[in-house]
Amino acid sequence: MRKYFAGVAAFATAAVVAVLAPGALAAPTQCGGPPSFTSPAAGSSVNGGLEVPSGGFCFLNNVTVNGGVTVDSGGFLEVWNGSAIHGGLSAASGAETEIWAGTPFGPGTFDFGPQSTIDGGLSISDTFFSFVVGAQINGGASFSGAVQDSAACGNDIRGGVTINNVQNGGAFFWLGDPEDAPFSITCPGNTIHGDLSVTNSNLVEVEGNSTTGSASISGSTLELNGNTINGNLSCGAGNTFLPPAGPDPTTNTIHHQVVSATSPC
């Protein structure tokens, strides 16, 4: 009897080790990679996550992904028509990510369909020409590194937004710009259900957004116009506030106090 139980225990232990061993879990589905460059069929579901490899072109048209999406350096991802990503979306250095809804290029242009959803947050770092337009993002959004010629417009973001160390070599990053559309893209402000933080960033436009929380700005060069901040606006040292361009509003609506280490804020 003891030998029997010892054998059962050994078998169970081996099974647990096999399940937990590296490589035992299924790898995420590859999307748009060579040589086939195949994307999931419109209206389909993908379980276990999705990865866009370097050189891949992945298109998600009304696709549901369970397990998150990762865009590797050199990969391209386009999301539209009510797609849903459960598990977050992360775009690495050198990737390009586009999330569209409606007709961002104006009436009569291509209609990207209803709002897409990202559950688990959005993280974009060191990407070029990335656009996140009209999405619902549950879990907040972060932008960092050389995020160049990129914009986040008209999104419903449930969680905080962090812009950190965006040093973009003279190319702007737009967090909303309703009056002066970048690249002819309609760019309304974002609704942020949380706080906004901009730190050590250069040439950022933060315009037309609404936050339920506070906003903090430090060590950054930016335009900060036409926002509604339902908490405090806190401005640390080392900021340069650029003057409004063209039709941009000249002030922000702040529902609580302005805390400033520099002036003006």
State the strand order across the main sheet.
1-3-6-9-12-15-18-21-24-27-30
Determine the fraction of residues in helical runs and give it as a percent range.
under 10%
Mind telling me the C-alpha Rg?
A: 22 Å
The structure class reads mainly beta
Largest sheet: 11 strands, parallel
Q: Which spans of ≥5 residues are poorly predicted at pLDDT below 50?
A: 1-24
Please count the beta strands (DSSP E, at least 2 residues each).
30
- Total number of helical segments? 1
Secondary-structure topology with pairs:
Blueprint: H1 2-20, E1 29-30, E2 45-47, E3 50-52, E4 57-61, E5 64-66, E6 69-71, E7 76-80, E8 84-86, E9 89-91, E10 96-99, E11 117-119, E12 122-125, E13 131-133, E14 136-138, E15 141-144, E16 150-153, E17 156-158, E18 161-164, E19 173-175, E20 191-192, E21 196-199, E22 202-207, E23 210-211, E24 215-218, E25 221-225, E26 228-229, E27 233-235, E28 240-241, E29 253-254, E30 258-260
Parallel strand pairs: 1-3, 2-5, 3-6, 4-7, 5-8, 6-9, 7-10, 8-11, 9-12, 10-13, 11-14, 12-15, 13-16, 14-17, 15-18, 16-19, 17-20, 18-21, 19-22, 20-23, 21-24, 22-25, 23-26, 24-27, 25-28, 26-29, 27-30
